[in-house]
Amino acid sequence: MKSYILLILFSVIVFNLPAQKFKNLAQTPPMGWNSWNKFGCDVSEELIMGIADAMESNGMKDAGYEYIVIDDCWQVDRNENGEVIVDKERFPHGMKFLADYIHSKGLKFGIYSCAGTKTCQGRPGGRGYEFQDARTYASWDVDYLKYDWCYSTTQNAKASYEIMRDALYKAGRPIVFSLCEWGQNKPWEWAEDVGHLWRTTGDIVDRWDAMMAIFDAQKELANYAAPGHWNDPDMLEVGNGGMTTEEYRTHFSLWCMLASPLMAGNDLQNMDKETLEILTNKEMIAINQDTLGKQAFCLRDNGDYEIWIKKLAGDEKAVCLLNRSDEEKTFEVNLPVLLKSNDYYWATDPYKMKDYKILDVWEKNNVNGDKDLITVTLPSHSVKVFRFIKNK
Ligand code: GLA
């Protein structure tokens, strides 16, 4: 009798354990590549394998890029058992084959679906098939799932994403869960325990003003980002042709400052030297991947001129000076003020100028910190990024 009661008690406890996402994933912002921005529905096995080859050999893997994510359009239907059917024309060997290929390169494999009944391109969505799909993804050795929000009609966002979180957890394979709900229901307020990243806005467009509008929408969200759960201002457009090299450098720098996921969205098989240099700037990526996991806050907004600060581990700091205007501008910058700036108070310790050297991240040289005031000239739509590095 006693053991019977114990068994009931045990079952009640086990089956009522709080549902959870996979912990310990995305401890720094995920880095990788996604097919959508450049290729839209034109995805195939050949393309994805080519991208994996390029990422492995062109320095991006060494720079930290890891996930290769196929966005919409890989799926065509469901069979009579409800199983999702892969487009056999475009992916003749199926998804497990592709996953194995990507894994053989030391990279990780991501896929896309949607919380609604259809994906945004009208392909089969996940609604009602969450547990079945999660098992399928696990059997394909998927490492990352981007989950969209089209055809969700009156669904409750939190509840919908929680179903998929639970399904992934039950399937047992650790999968980074990327919520793509466009910020409509303020996921930053509820998704910390649901996913590892959440889109904060609608889709990015490969234009300076569109990119900056998304950047501006992140301003109030800094406190919601931390290791394991990040604001996602959408995938990168660097290299896609709609902005100047200077503007792409700014785009990449801002995304790094925001501790944003860095999902390249260009054709890795055909890119120029400048694009690769931007995407693989090691110091800029180190700022993005800093283990403290802080998103930058805006210290000063003088209209066209802004100063953004990102606190880094070990009492270090990254500073981004941004010229949004259409003209070149010259500014006077007070280095100790930048070093000591804090989002909630003006600290005196532990920030002493003599303890730091200052790296200009894009120029790759050190700035002389002997004088408090320095003059900085910024071309239109450009940034200057400094890292205050503590002397060892
Ligand atoms: C939505 C998402 C995009 C992309 C497309 C695919 O618009 O926000 O990032 O995934 O769907 O159809």
Helix and strand arrangement:
Elements: H1 2-15, E1 31-34, H2 36-39, H3 45-57, H4 60-63, E2 67-69, E3 75-78, E4 84-86, H5 94-104, E5 108-114, H6 130-139, E6 144-148, H7 157-171, E7 176-179, E8 197-199, H8 208-216, E9 230-232, H9 245-257, E10 262-264, H10 273-279, H11 282-288, E11 297-302, E12 305-312, E13 316-323, E14 329-334, H12 335-340, E15 356-360, E16 365-367, E17 373-378, E18 382-390
Parallel strand pairs: 1-2, 1-10, 2-5, 5-6, 6-7, 7-8, 8-9
Antiparallel strand pairs: 3-4, 11-12, 12-13, 13-18, 14-17, 15-16, 15-18
Bound molecules: alpha-D-galactopyranose.
Alpha-D-galactopyranose (GLA) binds next to loops.
Keywords:
392 residues; alpha/beta; TIM Barrel; Immunoglobulin-like; 2 domains; six-stranded antiparallel beta sheet; 12 helices; globular; binds alpha-D-galactopyranose
Question: What do these coordinates show?
Answer:
The protein is α/β, with parallel strands linked by helices and 392 residues long. It folds into two domains: 31-288, Aldolase class I (TIM Barrel, Alpha-Beta Barrel); 297-390, Sandwich (Immunoglobulin-like), CATH 2.60.40. 29% of the residues lie in helices and 23% in strands. The chain is built from twelve helices and 18 strands. It has helices at residues 2-15, 36-39, 45-57, 60-63, 94-104, 130-139, 157-171, 208-216, 245-257, 273-279, 282-288, 335-340; strands spanning 31-34, 67-69, 75-78, 84-86, 108-114, 144-148, 176-179, 197-199, 230-232, 262-264, 297-302, 305-312, 316-323, 329-334, 356-360, 365-367, 373-378, 382-390. Strands 9-8-7-6-5-2-1-10 form an eight-stranded parallel sheet. Helix 9 packs parallel to helix 11 (282-288). The longest helix is centred in the middle third of the chain and has 15 residues, at 157-171. It is globular, with a radius of gyration of 23 Å. The termini are far apart. The structure holds alpha-D-galactopyranose.
